[in-house]
TrEMBL record:
Full protein name: Quinohemoprotein ethanol dehydrogenase
InterPro entries in the record: Cyt_c-like_dom, Cyt_c-like_dom_sf, PQQ_b-propeller_rpt, PQQ_MeOH/EtOH_DH, PQQ_rpt_dom, Quinoprotein_ADH-like_sf, Quinoprotein_DH_CS
Organism annotation: Marinobacter zhejiangensis
Cofactor(s) the protein requires to work: Ca(2+); pyrroloquinoline quinone; heme c
Keyword Repeat: no
Domain of life: Bacteria
Length: 714
C-alpha cells in the first residue's frame, strides 16, 4: 500500500494575507466591541460549505469542513516558531461544567456552546461578547443524562445558528442577534429520558440531530428538520420497534431479524449521541450508533443475534432518510462499545487505487477504514490492547471473538472498558503526514452479568450487569492505577500501524487538531495544552492553563493573524463516575475559552479555586458489614453516576462529596426520598425503601471513616 497526500486548492496555498478575506461577504454586518466590522454568517451557503477548503482562515463547522478532518491548512504558526505562541485573550463563560465544544469561526465571529446548550457569539480577535443565548433548561433535567450537561458544538448556516439544548430541543437562532427563530422538541412520545449533547449537522436545507439516553431505555433515532422553519422532514430509527405495530421501512424489518425476545420493551438503544458526518456533495449522512439498552445482550435479546443497527456506521440518504448501507463494528454489542466516536472522511491510496473512505476508531479498540460509498471494509486493525476479539476477519468483516469475550458464564476482565480505547474526544487527520491523531486510553474492566436484573424507570442506569467494585484500599488502588493509561497515538490508516505515541499519566485527554504547520495540538484534564510535531511527535510547546481540557481546539485567522482556540472544563463520564481517578488529577474547573497567537502577551486570569468541602465529621457507624455491602450495591446503581465511584466526588463543584455531607447526621433520608427540586438531585421515593436508603447511608458513612483514616495516616 502507498499513501497519497490530498492536493489542496490553490487558494488555500496562497499566503495567509491573501487568503484572509477571500470568502463571500454576507449581506448583514456586525460591529464588534473593538470597532471591527465583520460579516455575519448569512453567507454560509451550500456552495460555500462544499468549498470550505478554499477558506483556510475560517472554521466553518465543528470539524472545519464537511469531511471533519479537523485539519487546518494555515502555516503561520509552525513547528519552527510555535515556541513564540502566547495567550491572546480569555473569555470566561461563568460556569463550571464539562467543556466539550469546538468553536466555529466564520468571518471574524466565533460561535461556541457551553453547558446545557448555551450559545456564545464572540469577536474572534479580542474575545468580546457580541451576544449570548441561554435555552433555560430546567436544572432538574441534569439528572437525565448519563454523563453531565455538556454540549459538543453547534452549526451555522444561512444566517442561523443551530444548537441542541440538553433537554432535547433543537433551536435555530438568528446569527446576528441570538434571537430564537424556531425551536422543536425532538423527543418522541414525550420520553423525557432523551438528551442532546452532540452538535447538529446542516446542509442542503436540512438540519439533522440525534440524541442520547440509551442507558435509560430509549429507542435511538435521528431526525431531519427544514433548516428554514423547523418542520420535521424525516426520522430514521437505528433499532426496530414493536413488530406488532409494523416496521417503518425495510431496514427496520431486516434489523428485527437480528433481535429476539421483547427487546422493544426496554427501548433497544442505538442512540446517535455524537458523531455524524454530512457529505453535501452526495447528500449522504453517516451516523455512528451507540450501545444497546440495556448493555447486556443476554437480557435485551436472549437468543443472541447481531442486534442491528447497534454499534454501527450507517449511511442514510440525507434528502429522504432512506437507509443505504451499514457496517457493524461490534455485532451483538454487550460491552458499551459504541460506534458514536468521530467519523472522518478522506481520500487514501490503497493498493494503488484512490479510495474515498470513512475512518473511525470506536470504543472497541479497532481502527476501521471503509469505502464510504458502499460500506465495504477495506482494512481494520487494533490500535490498543484488545482482549474481547483477536482480529477482524477480512472475509466476513466481523470480529473474531475470544473464548471468554462475553460474561454470560461468569465475570470477565476485559480491555477496553466502557470508557473506550477512544471515546468522544475528536481525532484529527493530517493529509500531509497521512496520520490520524487519536486520544487513546487503556482501562481494564470486569464485566459481570446481573442475574437478578430488573429494569427500573426514572433516573437509573439500566445496564444489565454488575458495576465492578473498584479498590477502596488506598494501597491496592495505587497498584491498579498504573494499569490505567492515556496517550496520543499517531496512526497510519494506510498501513494500519502506529507511527508514534506520546504517553500521559492520565486518561480522558482532549481532542486533537492538526495543521499544515506540522503541528498537533491537544489538551489534558490536568490543565496543559501541548503542541507536537505532526510527523514525529516531538513536543515543541506547552502552556499551563491550570484548568482541565477535554475539548478539541480550532485554528483560524483574521487580518493575517493565526489563532488557536480551545474551551476548558473537564466533563463527561470521567468527571463524575471515576471519582478516585479524577480527583487525583488535581485540576481546577471552569469553562473558559483560551485563544493564542504568535507574540501573545495576555496574562492568564487567576484560576478559580475548587469549592471547599465541609470537614470530615462522620457519625458513628452502626451498620454491620452485610448492610454496608448492600448499601454499596445500591449506591453503585442509584448514586455513583453523579457522586462518584466509592463515594469519592469527581471534578464537578456542583455535586457534593457525600463523605463530607452533614446530611449523614440528619436529613439524609428525606433528601434521598424527595430529592431537591430545582437541582440535579432527583427523588427516589418510588425506587428505594427506608431500609434501602439507610443501607446507602451506612455505606457512605463507612467511606467517610475510610477518608478520616487515610488523612490520619498521611
Amino acid at each position: 500500500m502507498t499513501r497519497t497526500a490530498r492536493l489542496w486548492p490553490v487558494a488555500s496555498l496562497l499566503s495567509l494575507t491573501l487568503a484572509v478575506g477571500c470568502s463571500p461577504v454576507a449581506e448583514q454586518q456586525t460591529t464588534t466591541s473593538n470597532g471591527n466590522t465583520i460579516a455575519a454568517p448569512a453567507g454560509v451557503t451550500d456552495t460555500r460549505w462544499r468549498q470550505a477548503d478554499q477558506e483556510p482562515q475560517n472554521w466553518l463547522g465543528v470539524g472545519r469542513t464537511f469531511e471533519e478532518q479537523r485539519f487546518s491548512p494555515l502555516t503561520q504558526v509552525s513547528a519552527d516558531n510555535v515556541a513564540d505562541l502566547g495567550l491572546a485573550w480569555v473569555y470566561d463563560m461563568g460556569s463550571k461544567q464539562g467543556g466539550s465544544a469546538t468553536p466555529v469561526v466564520v468571518d471574524g465571529v466565533m460561535y461556541i456552546t457551553g453547558p446545557w446548550g448555551k450559545v456564545y457569539a464572540l469577536d474572534a480577535v479580542a474575545g468580546k461578547p457580541l451576544w449570548t443565548y441561554d435555552p433555560r433548561v430546567n436544572a432538574e433535567a441534569g439528572a437525565r443524562g448519563c454523563c453531565g450537561v455538556t454540549n459538543r458544538g453547534l452549526a451555522v448556516y444561512q444566517g442561523k445558528v443551530y444548537v441542541g439544548a440538553f433537554d432535547a430541543r433543537l433551536i435555530a437562532l438568528d446569527a446576528q442577534t441570538g434571537a430564537v427563530v424556531w425551536e422543536e422538541d425532538t423527543n418522541e412520545d414525550n420520553n423525557a429520558r432523551r438528551t442532546i449533547t452532540g452538535a447538529p449537522r446542516v446542509a442542503n436545507g436540512r438540519v439533522i440531530i440525534g440524541h442520547g439516553g440509551a442507558e435509560f431505555g430509549v429507542r435511538g433515532y435521528v431526525t431531519a428538520y427544514d433548516a428554514e422553519n423547523g418542520k420535521q422532514l424525516w426520522r430514521f430509527y437505528t433499532v426496530p420497534g414493536n413488530p406488532e405495530q409494523g416496521f417503518e421501512n425495510q431496514a427496520m424489518a431486516d434489523a428485527a431479524e437480528t433481535w429476539s425476545g421483547d427487546w422493544w420493551t426496554q427501548g433497544g438503544g442505538g442512540t446517535v449521541w455524537d458523531s455524524m458526518v454530512f457529505d453535501p456533495t452526495t447528500d449522504v449522512i453517516y451516523l455512528g450508533t451507540g450501545n444497546g439498552s440495556p448493555w447486556n445482550r443476554r437480557i435485551r435479546s436472549p437468543e443472541g443475534g447481531d442486534n442491528l443497527y447497534l454499534s454501527s456506521i450507517v449511511a442514510v440518504n440525507a434528502r429522504t432518510g432512506e437507509y443505504l448501507w451499514h457496517y457493524q463494528t461490534t455485532p451483538g454489542e454487550s460491552w458499551d462499545y459504541t460506534a458514536t466516536q468521530p467519523l472522518v472522511l478522506a481520500t487514501l491510496e490503497l493498493d494503488g487505487k484512490s479510495r474515498e473512505v470513512i475512518m473511525q476508531a470506536p470504543k472497541n479498540g479497532f481502527f476501521y477504514v471503509l469505502d464510504r460509498h458502499t460500506g465495504e471494509l477495506l482494512s481494520a486493525n487494533n490500535f490498543t490492547k484488545v482482549t474481547w476479539a483477536s482480529h477482524i476477519d477480512m472475509t466476513t468483516g466481523r470480529p473474531v471473538e475470544t473464548e471468554n469475550a462475553r460474561y454470560d458464564n461468569g465475570p470477565q476482565l476485559a480491555f477496553p472498558s466502557p470508557f473506550g480505547a477512544h471515546n468522544w474526544h475528536p481525532m484529527s487527520y493530517n493529509p500531509q503526514t497521512g496520520l490520524v491523531y487519536i486520544p487513546h486510553q487503556q482501562v481494564p474492566w470486569v464485566y459481570s452479568d446481573d442475574e437478578n436484573y430488573q429494569a427500573r424507570p426514572g433516573n437509573v442506569f439500566n445496564l444489565g450487569l454488575k458495576w465492578p467494585d473498584f479498590p477502596e484500599d488506598p494501597e491496592v488502588l495505587q497498584q491498579v492505577l498504573p494499569l490505567i493509561k492515556g496517550s496520543l497515538v499517531a496512526w497510519d490508516p494506510v498501513t494500519q500501524q502506529k507511527a508514534w505515541e506520546v504517553e500521559y499519566p492520565t486518561i480522558w485527554n482532549g481532542g486533537t487538531v492538526t495543521t499544515a504547520g506540522n503541528l498537533v495540538f491537544q489538551g489534558t484534564p490536568t490543565g496543559q495544552l501541548y503542541a507536537y510535531r505532526a510527523d514525529t511527535g516531538e513536543r515543541v510547546w506547552s502552556y499551563d492553563v491550570g484548568i482541565g481540557i477535554v475539548a478539541a481546539p480550532a485554528v483560524y485567522a483574521i487580518d493575517g493573524e493565526e489563532y488557536v482556540s480551545v474551551l476548558t472544563g473537564v466533563g463527561g463520564a470521567l468527571s463524575r463516575i471515576a471519582g478516585p481517578f479524577a480527583a487525583a488529577y488535581q485540576a481546577r474547573h471552569s469553562n473558559r475559552i483560551y485563544t493564542f497567537r504568535l507574540g501573545g502577551t495576555a496574562a492568564n486570569p487567576p484560576v478559580p479555586e475548587r469549592r471547599p468541602q465541609p470537614p470530615l465529621s462522620p457519625p458513628e457507624q452502626t451498620a454491620d458489614a452485610a448492610n454496608v455491602d448492600s448499601g454499596r450495591a445500591l449506591y453503585n446503581r442509584y448514586c455513583m453516576r453523579c457522586h462518584g465511584e466509592g463515594a469519592v466526588a469527581g471534578l464537578m463543584d456542583d455535586i457534593p462529596d457525600l463523605r463530607h455531607s452533614p446530611l449523614l447526621h440528619a436529613g439524609f433520608e428525606p433528601t434521598v426520598r424527595y430529592g431537591r427540586p430545582g437541582t440535579y438531585m432527583p427523588a427516589f421515593d418510588d425506587l428505594l425503601t427506608d431500609a434501602d436508603i439507610e443501607q446507602v447511608r451506612s455505606y457512605i458513612v463507612k467511606r467517610a471513616h475510610d477518608a478520616v483514616n487515610e488523612q490520619a495516616a498521611r
